[in-house]
């Protein structure tokens, strides 16, 4: 497979030089990084946006040094894999996430990235889905899969409550848990998003005003809770689970990671209720069965909703503004160029929207 790498050795990247709002991204020419032994060079096709990148941009990641190319995940094709030619071939479709991407070294907001080979997974069934879906998968699915099956140990017939259901991980968790035979309920602050939640697997929806435990007292109850909002609702979520159940904190879309007051476990954690957490990692991505998940997406058994798709690195500012304002209603994805929007599913040659989304829920492409 012939490389499409520019002859002059340069690429385009969205670079942050200082903390601030969405306007701080500067799209500029950078030299294409060169991989050393044990690394791979990936030509990026698509990448998803994550709130951790928003927090870094805002200055809440003190260990990140600027200038920096953000982006903790990416999907694309292998260009070079020195020392790992037996594992990766030029043109292999791959996904990568975490491991210091966009924090310790330059990440996915670019046309190329170099990452350790140990955090790259070949997606053999990638021809079943579009680039925008593949770009959404790495971080969203490794977090979802790990939180559900490693932290919560989800089983068939479990009753799962997802606190923060309209996040991308919340939507994916609802779809996957439903496909595994669990009963799924989800919360949202916006009543108009109930249809979105139900379309992705939620059988019960609670409008969240900061406290849903009193509403749940009128229902059968739950033995598993996935906490996406964070410490602002964690105490209440602990009151939503029955004895023997588990609450897993996996996100903090509220932007708060610590309590303002002193957290007292003996007061806040009910008898025989377990509190755990799930932390994303590069190792977790490798353990996530992306091919199995992709196959399920292709057969429409899991519908991990994409909220909005933006085309081109020059749209990073706009995409971050959309994330800041919580307007996406699902995962935000950036495609590197507009040629990628036409990649068909191989099942009938239809587009992603034709295969997964109804007219009402198809992602908006900008």
The backbone outline, from C-alpha atoms, is globular
SSE ordering: EEEHEEEEHEHEHEHEHEHEHHEHEHE
The stretches of 5 or more residues where confidence is low (pLDDT under 50) are 342-362
Which range best describes the helical content: under 10%, 10-25%, 25-40%, 40-55%, 55-70% or over 70%?
10-25%
- The mean pLDDT is 88
> Structural class of the secondary structure composition?
alpha/beta
Number of helices: 11
**In whole angstroms, how far apart are the ends?**
30 Å
Number of strands: 16
What fraction of the residues are assigned to beta strands by DSSP?
A: 25-35%
| Radius of gyration from the alpha-carbon trace, in angstroms | 20 Å
Q: How would you characterize the largest beta sheet?
A: 8 strands, mixed
Oligomeric form of this entry?
A: single chain
Tell me what the structure shows:
By secondary structure, this protein is an alpha/beta fold. 25% of the residues lie in helices and 25% in strands. The chain is built from eleven helices and 16 strands. The protein has helices at 51-57, 131-151, 168-179, 194-199, 213-216, 231-238, 265-268, 282-287, 290-298, 316-324, 352-356; strands spanning 10-16, 25-31, 39-48, 73-80, 93-97, 112-116, 120-122, 159-163, 183-188, 204-207, 222-227, 241-249, 274-277, 306-311, 331-335, 364-365. Strands 3, 4, 5, 6, 7, 14, 15 and 16 form an eight-stranded mixed β-sheet that branches. A six-stranded parallel β-sheet has the order 10-9-8-11-12-13, with helices on both faces. Strands 1-2 form a two-stranded antiparallel ribbon. Helix 10 (316-324) links the parallel strand 14 and strand 15. Helix 2 (131-151) packs across helix 3 (168-179). The longest helix has 21 residues, at 131-151. It starts with 9 loop residues before the first strand and ends with a strand.
